[in-house]
Amino acid sequence: MTTSTGFDVRRIGGRIGAEILGVDLSGDLEPALVSEIDSALLEHKALLFRDQHLDDAGQLRFASLFGELTTAHPTVPSVEGQPRILPVDADEGIRSNVWHTDVTFVRTPPKASTLRSIVVPPYGGNTLIANSAAAYRDLPEPLRELADRLWAVHTNAYDYAAPKNEKAAEYRKRFVSRTYRTVHPVVRVHAETGERGLFIGGFAQSIVGLGSSESRDLLRIFQSYVTRPENIVRVAWTPGDVVLFDNRITQHYAPDDYGDLPRLLHRVTVAGDVPAGVDGTLSHVLEGDDASHYTPAVA
Prior knowledge:
Structural class: alpha+beta
Number of strands: 16
Strand content: 15-25%
Shape: globular
Number of helices: 6
Radius of gyration: 18 Å
Helix content: 10-25%
Strand order of the largest sheet: 1-2-3-13-5-15-4
């Protein structure tokens, strides 16, 4: 499909994902072009821009077109001298091989995330992105009705696998240096499209009102719909690629399938709003603070 501003949108997945052709992210993007990219993001959930070769400033400039930016992360350090950029560096023990939505342990998780590939392995190291709205629609009606009423506790402090090395152990220590526990709806209503999506993932550790065993079982059932192959697009990185995805209605996963090879991405996130459930009730903090050092409040 060719848009009115002249770029092409080519679907790369049946239910999620499109490649944007004919846009140079290093230049100044006209408001009409940004509006059409934003519309494509709402429709396709994840957008791939090949061969852009942005620097840090270019990535920050591009991400800021979609809203105010967060800092890099609530607890772990940014790229040196770049407080809004998170290094996703396999050498530092950062291997996100758990399905998750970015930073859902705070009350206002990011609206959108950008990833820029800098060093990629010759094989493996892909990023998988899942459509949680399609997952919700796939649920049998009794499960949809149940999910609509449930709330989950998200936290950054849970039982991870044992760190593989000292760097990974140090990263884990920093990650949980400040504990956050936040209650979010299991079904989030998207603030712009009104779509309902399963808002769970790796940081969702329990269901409000249920014990640990029942919580694990229900979360496993709901999560199995998110990670159905038909709801996933796989991004095979080449250096210089940029991906923009809607963090409100997706999950993502980076398979740890490239051994000890180097892999480095930079992440910049756009500040989001407070999630709302199907009845309009908003998320609330159980432990920690409003993470104002990380993300500005978005009305």
